[in-house]
Design brief:
heterodimer; A: alpha+beta; five-stranded mixed beta sheet; two-stranded parallel ribbon; 28 helices; globular; B: alpha+beta
Chain lengths: 590, 122
């Protein structure tokens, strides 16, 4: 699928793709709805939606606003929960070690990514790679262990509603989905909320991804469901967020775990299962409890199961983080990473102390939707996946872009940006209550450190809004740091295809022009090709170069445009004849 | 795929986590060398988007294997077939050339292990 709006945990930033929104019917109205949702201007948002005549556009504008609330909630949960902090830490462990990795790689003369592949001696020998230093091996082990922990936490279970995944990741999704649905009902009303819930490309995926926790908790007798309203499920949701938060309060600093045959304090999926079992004999009480009472019950149960209440578990995690930030984060580590981590930790402490006194502000969807949500303000980055020629607007800073060292002075199309952020968001964004303070270092992380960390953690095999961030990180390692970068071929590019019906869903249009032949293509025909898939067929690029346009123009356009391309059925046949060859991905366009 | 001077064929097996974990725990097989298992899962993905969420992906894992003879390969593949038979789902394990990620074959319940192993040594 194609990300339009997403939360990037590597920089705690919210990204949206303005070029993809521009492809939608009613893009101006949709863009305005997004802006209002980002600013927490609920009343203005409602007025705006009411002013839209086209019902598809008004629903899509509402859907985008709701998606924004979903992503903003991820920001809160990455800040407050132990699991979110664990996911953050994985990036900081790489950022902090950036100078050491560069220096070791320069000493070795080469660097294999993802680093975890260095753990495979047979593989490294087979590829004739140089031996890594001990510190590179230690970082590789850290990455491998974290992946293993996340893998062990993911349990896919068959159910009568299809496969469901129980994990920290899916709990984060369940929480964010609950908030978006609840807030949609409160802001737009129940009818509009149902329309928004149906404004999805494929209902079954949404059901598996987001509603599994309701079904499981109803089935376990912990959540009461008075029935259906239309085809929507009604639930008494008071215990829902308290149970999810109890599961996300995992113990992941290498501490002693509390375990029995049926319970474990360790990862979110085990904690979730433990709480479901442990809470069963209090089902009657938790059904009729308020959110605060349900939170008390979950805390008491956790104390019985894990020897710690949820609050104690969260406090212990924050104290360990405090110890790391104040005592172990030495000056050998990268300064910008240290500053960002301190900023994160300080906000976490402030948010936690408030949470202890007022848990309803986070766990009661009514209070969160009506009040807390409006003050949640992650830094926002605007992406332009097709590449916007020139510089960003004057009040924006470039996060990711390209300026050709030789051609930029001569040609307008030799300089562009893919991502930019509004300057001085601390001052210009109103009502920033749950918000970081050091915009400059977070933007440095988004532009420089995060792409590098992604590359060394996963190679190129990641889902990211902008492919160029990875390719640019590669280029920087090769040219600035003179490191011979070897991408493990097994992690050479992200997999995944884009069904053409998703493109019709996304744009709200029934016809599109083929990007190659310019013929009109009617729903459901056509082929959507993602940016990586385009670059996997270098023959396609060669054919473009032979199409009569000047070579430089083609090269710049191809390198700039990382949006999906749309082809007619006729051109599909031609395109699919080009042979897949991933060896030229990083060099295409040069 | 590249055959070294000692005729060691090195391939990566990519399959469901539960199967690859069990391959790593197999008792020693003469002529087979096993590497450390690695996750095929990304750690740095952005969080899922509520517009156009990702479908569930099976959790895959990798293990690289050195095979010195076709006979050793047959023994390994038969053991993997047996492991696949004991899993609930209709899974398979891909045999991949680690130098270019090309799939050389698949091990499934109905795979002819001899044909697959001898193909690797051609």
């Amino acid at each position: 699928m194609i990300p339009i709006i997403q939360f990037d945990p590597s920089s705690l930033t919210l990204w949206y793709d303005t070029h993809l929104i521009a492809r939608m019917r009613g893009s101006a109205e949709i863009g305005k709805a997004l802006d209002l949702a980002l600013r927490g201007a609920d009343a203005e948002l409602v007025d705006h939606i009411k002013s839209i005549d086209d019902s598809w556009v008004s629903t899509r504008a509402s859907t985008i606003a709701v998606a924004c609330w979903h992503e903003k909630r991820h920001f809160v949960d990455f800040l407050l929960t132990n699991y979110g902090a664990f996911r953050m830490r994985q990036f900081f462990s790489v950022y902090l070690n950036f100078p050491a990795v560069i220096s070791d790689a320069q000493q070795m003369g080469e660097l294999l990514v993802p680093l975890q592949s260095y753990r495979e001696k047979l593989f490294c020998k087979h590829l004739g790679l140089k031996s890594p230093t001990d510190s590179i091996l230690a970082i590789a082990k850290n990455i491998r262990d974290r992946k293993k922990m996340l893998g062990d936490d993911m349990h896919v279970e068959a159910s009568r509603f299809g496969d469901i995944e129980i994990s920290g990741e899916s709990l984060l999704e369940a929480v964010a989905h609950h908030i978006q649905t609840a807030k949609a009902e409160r802001v737009f009303g129940i009818e509009a909320s149902h329309l928004i819930q149906k404004d999805v490309p494929e209902n079954s995926i949404v059901s598996q991804r987001y509603t599994w926790a309701y079904r499981l908790l109803i089935h376990s007798g912990l959540i009461n469901s008075p029935g259906m309203i239309g085809d929507g499920l009604l639930i008494d949701d008071s215990p829902f967020l308290p149970i999810c938060y109890g599961a996300l309060a995992c113990r992941v600093w290498g501490q002693q775990q509390t375990r029995t045959e049926s319970t474990s304090s360790f990862n979110p999926s085990e904690r979730f299962a433990s709480l479901v079992i442990g809470l069963r004999d209090q089902a009657a009480d938790i059904h009729k409890a308020s959110v605060i009472d349900a939170w008390e019950i979950v805390n008491r149960t956790a104390k019985k199961l894990f020897d710690r209440t949820i609050i104690e578990e969260m406090r212990a995690d924050i104290e360990l983080e405090e110890d790391f930030v104040t005592k172990k984060m030495s000056e050998d580590f990268l300064k910008s990473a240290r500053t960002a981590y301190r900023d994160y930790h300080e906000l976490r402490v402030r948010t936690f102390e408030r949470f202890v006194e007022h848990p309803e502000e986070v766990l009661d969807q009514r209070v969160y939707s009506d009040s807390t949500e409006k003050g949640v303000a992650p830094y926002v980055i605007v992406a332009a996946s097709s590449g916007e020629v020139g510089d960003p607007p004057p009040d924006y800073s470039r996060i990711l872009g390209y300026s050709d060292p030789e051609l930029a002075a001569k040609r307008e199309d030799a300089r562009w940006w893919w991502a930019a952020s509004l300057k001085d968001q601390n001052q210009r964004v109103p009502n920033r209550k749950i918000a970081l303070q050091s915009q400059e270092v977070w933007m440095e992380i988004a532009s420089d450190l995060a792409p590098f960390a992604k590359l060394i953690m996963d190679g190129r095999n990641i889902r990211t809004m902008l492919g160029p961030e990875i390719v640019a990180a590669e280029a920087r390692l090769r040219t600035t740091f003179k490191i011979n970068l070897v991408v493990d071929p097994r992690h050479a590019y992200p997999k995944g295809t884009i069904p053409s019906d998703f493109w019709y869903y996304l744009t709200g249009k029934d016809t599109h022009r083929c990007d190659m032949t310019y013929e009109t293509v009617t729903k459901p025909e056509g082929l959507v090709v993602g940016p990586w898939a385009l670059r996997l067929r270098p023959g396609f690029y060669d054919a473009l170069r032979g199409s009569g346009y000047p070579d430089t123009t083609v090269a710049l356009a191809f390198w700039r445009d990382w949006s999906p391309w749309f082809f007619s059925e006729e051109f599909r046949e031609q395109f699919e004849r080009f042979v897949v060859d991933d060896t030229r991905i990083a060099n295409l366009g040069n | 795929m590249h055959e070294e001077a000692k005729m060691v064929v090195v391939v990566t097996l990519r399959g469901p986590k539960e199967v690859i974990d069990k391959i790593a725990e197999l008792p020693e097989i003469a002529g087979i060398e096993l590497d450390e298992t690695q996750s095929d899962h990304s750690l740095s993905d952005a969080v899922d988007s509520s517009i156009g969420p990702q479908e569930f992906e099976q959790i895959l894992q990798l293990i690289t294997v050195g095979i010195t003879t076709a006979t050793a390969g047959v023994t390994l593949f038969e053991k993997i077939r047996s492991l696949l038979g004991s899993t609930e789902k209709n899974s398979n394990v891909a045999v991949v050339d680690p130098t270019n990620n090309k799939t050389l074959g698949n091990i499934a319940a109905d795979t002819n292990s001899e044909r697959l192993a001898s193909g690797l040594f051609k």
